[in-house]
Amino acid sequence: MCCGSKAIENRGALPETIDNELLKGMLFFDPHVHMTSRTTDDYQAMADAGIVALIEPSFWLGQPRTNAGTFKDYYSSLLGWERFRSGQFGIKHYCTIGLNSREANNEALAEEVMALLPKFIYKEGVVGIGEIGFDDQTTLEEKYYRLQLELAKEAALPVQVHTPHRDKKKGTQRSMDIAVEQGLDPSMVIIDHNNEETVEEVLNRGFWAAFTIYPFTKMGNERMVEIVKKYGAERIMVNSAADWGISDPLAVPKTALLMKQKGISDAVVKAVTYSNAITAFGQSGQIDTADFENGFMINQSEKFENNSVLRGGQQPRIDKSSIIIK
Amino acid sequence: MFAYTIEILRPAIAAVLKEESSSESFTWLVALPVPPQNITRDFSFASRKFSKQRPASSSAPHIYLAEKFQRTHWHSWTILDLARLYLLLQLNAANEQEYTTTIESVFNQADLGELTILYKALPYFAYGKAWESRCAEGIRSNMGTVLEAIMYENSYPSVHLPEAAWNQLILKAIFTGKDLGRIYGLEERNNAALAASLLDYAEERLAAGRNIDAAVWPLTKVFYPEKTGVLQQRFLQEK
Ligand SMILES: [Zn+2]
Question: What residues are paired with A128 via a beta bridge?
């Protein structure tokens, strides 16, 4: 009785709310979001907030995966079902394919998954190998990180590197050292989940620095504003990494609004919430901005005779404010 | 093996592709080993070589293709779709078991665009009967693009599906708001069991206060003229 109703009373007291007027005309690209774990309400809200394209990295699904078949089906569902689902809301869906660090610790399984990867990385809309890197920083994690860097080099694909929560600074340095040792050009590597402690070295060494705006455990967006004030926009991008945890699929547009409010120029806001991600992952050759720069996804293959345009985002809307459900 | 003349289709598609793609891409495609050694990879890789635009329908090769194979609505095929069909037509079909296993493996790890073209290509696979369960599986999909690939201007379902699967296709089409006018074989494959299911569905819609696609009435009328008339009347009154 006590706590539940109190929480409801407090809901109205949010300090800042999204001003849809300010969002008008702004386009966003979220380069790291796990839509498999999100609902259609999230897709609708993201489309409404101006997110026109996103990248879904393959990751730890949060459920047991004891054989390679579940990985195969997961990759297929990212490339099939999730791509379709996203398109229904007018959002262009890309993905990165990889064996994540946590599951790299089961060697027999990891070997089988490694054998699967070449079958998926050349598919349409695969913009990189990811998310790979370190979690516990074990020798097996290192082994499969290196093997996948090799694969990325061979396929000329960018790499999306997850950096560990624990022992982050050292883990981040080690991730970069290994990428260089394996002969990757830092401009092809996006180091993810940065913070104030890691950003300087990442940028100095020529890598892309991605920041995850994720409540309680990663970055808050007020801190992000300070980082952009200090380092500018070059090679910096923002993502939500929204997943099955308490996270926010609107983190990118919210951060853009906050930046605008704090006086950061439109050009810088656009770079870190839209164009830098496109430049970095566009090195895969898989991103055609004509597919979404009009503010919604255009399915090129659904254009009839190359001129009439069918758009995504045609899902019927439900009236959320009504208690009547028709 | 093939229910059509593959020796005509293959060069006809090649001619369209030659016209519509860069010489580099076209050379890549025709230089691949026959039969393809790594079809799943090449099938994916084709997306890096061929455009997702539609070919110009006014070109001579396209007109020829459309005239020779009229049951397919080639205008809705992209250049990439055609390149992928060309790859599938290069498979060795001598051994049914090997042939179907190979194509099934392409299905099993396909992305959305690949799945769509695979289902569109059903009429052009060898051993038509062998694809019944694959086609029925596609009808169970919830991806609209896959459903449309099977339902619209595709001659496979009406020729090969057993009655129960055919009825599922029609019910699913109506349930998901598809355009029945684009489904081949509506009249020829109509049957009493389907008509009865459609009438049940119509009653359900009526009870829910929702409308129904009028394209169902010609199908139900054949077997249940009176009940159809009564229901049509009730829908009109509801409006
Ligand atoms: Zn992630």
Answer: A96
Contacts of A305 in chain B (CB under 8 A): 54, 57, 75
For B79-131, the pLDDT digits (tens) are 999 999 999 999 999 999 999 999 999 999 999 999 999 999 999 999 999 99
A229 three-state secondary structure: helix
Domains of chain A in start order, with CATH, are 25-287 (3.20.20.140)
Asked whether residue B80 falls in the same domain as residue B169, the answer is yes
Q: Do B108 and B138 touch, CB atoms closer than 8 A?
A: no
CA-to-CA distance for A245 and B53, rounded, in angstroms?
40
The pTM of the full predicted model, rounded to 2 decimals, is 0.89
Q: Does B24 lie in the same domain as B58?
A: yes
Tell me how far the alpha carbon of residue B186 lies from the centroid of ligand 1, in angstroms: 47
User: Is 50 exceeded by the pLDDT of residue A311?
Assistant: no
Closest partner CB to B112 (pick from A80, A118, A285): A80
B1, part of any domain? no
Query: Which residue do the tokens 């380092």 mark?
Result: A231
ipTM comes to 0.84
Same domain, B142 and B178: yes
Interchain contact, B48 vs A84, CB within 8 Å: no
